[in-house]
Fold this sequence. Notes:
By secondary structure, this protein is an alpha+beta fold. It has one domain. The chain contains three helices and six strands; from the N terminus they run βαβαββββα.
Amino acid sequence: MDIELLIISDCPNSAPAGELLARALQLEGVDPTGVVTKEVRTEVEAQALGFHGSPSFTVNGADLFPTDADPAVTCRVYPTPEGLRGLPTLASLREVIRGSLTPGTRQADTSA
């Protein structure tokens, strides 16, 4: 499973998005060490990647929060119970990650 965090330069939510993604993956039993963070720099890249703003979370190239917005090198907002925010909630990110998991993606449970 290819997991990417797509960001733009100087995005104030880049670091918090990386932390949020790592936490969500850990809670879902997925090793977060393979996550790739990719900076989108041009409108051409945004178009090619289907990038709808920073930060964007993708699994196997698919945006975990699909939108009809045009691809663009811009900031992104997510609906939350508190209104629009620069990051999704941990619960909503976990839910979409869970929906993208395939058999064998989760780490084996080694607890006794």
